[in-house]
């Protein structure tokens, strides 16, 4: 079984290192964290990320993004869980221009783009199954309009999401997938809303206090034609490791497999369960 994971991880590494360079809007929804329903009590985390080849869609530029204060809290309420999370600060450096600014964003002028990141308030409800076993869950919530469209890193629009997530467990293996719909606001007066299909999932191999992780996430607008600026299709793969139980460290590398995915990124989180 471990050999199968290593084979899949090897394929992910090849994708991380060799995929066609992509460029992302800011940022896809993280895959559902099953530990929010599995572990009693609460947990909190703090971290950061660095993304290379990140495209700021409204600004019309490509550059490097530094995420500072990637923070969040989850509460397990039994068959339900609540999450509040977000990024305190985005620091973005323009490097290349790919299009004129859109949606009221300022053009590149040599200054760093500084803004607060997106904040999420979400709920998950276990519909069937048990902790650490096969399960079915409904996940829904909103991402708040905390970013400024004038800076060019966000749309200043409220997004809603809802997904149905499933998981199967076999020994140390946890395999999961989810699919659902989003309601995403745009800065285009002629097309003020898109409703993309949201998807995600992955595999986890638990080896005591160490877990190997392989995840994917993204969104896809099923309508024909070009997506409005700031709501482009996304596809991202993440390969990582999580160490510790009560106190934990998570490290992961990220790479887009679609035209709008990040060229490469790394993220870390330090967490504590209560």
Task: Characterise this structure.
It is a single chain. The protein is mainly beta and 274 residues long. Helix content is 8%, strand content 56%. The chain is built from 2 helices and 14 strands. It is globular, with a radius of gyration of 18 Å.
Taken as a percent bin, the fraction of beta residues is: over 45%
User: Which segments are poorly predicted (pLDDT under 50) over 5 or more consecutive residues?
Assistant: 1-24
Count the helices. How many?
2
Count the strands? Answer: 14
Distance between the termini: 32 Å
Compute the CA-based radius of gyration: 18 Å
Instruction: Report the principal-axis shape.
Output: globular
Largest sheet: 12 strands, antiparallel, barrel
Structural class: mainly beta
Series of H and E elements: HHEEEEEEEEEEEEEE
Average predicted confidence as pLDDT = 86
Q: Give, in spatial order, the strands making up the sheet with the most strands.
A: 1-2-3-5-6-7-8-10-11-12-13-14
* Percent of residues in helices: under 10%
Oligomer: single chain
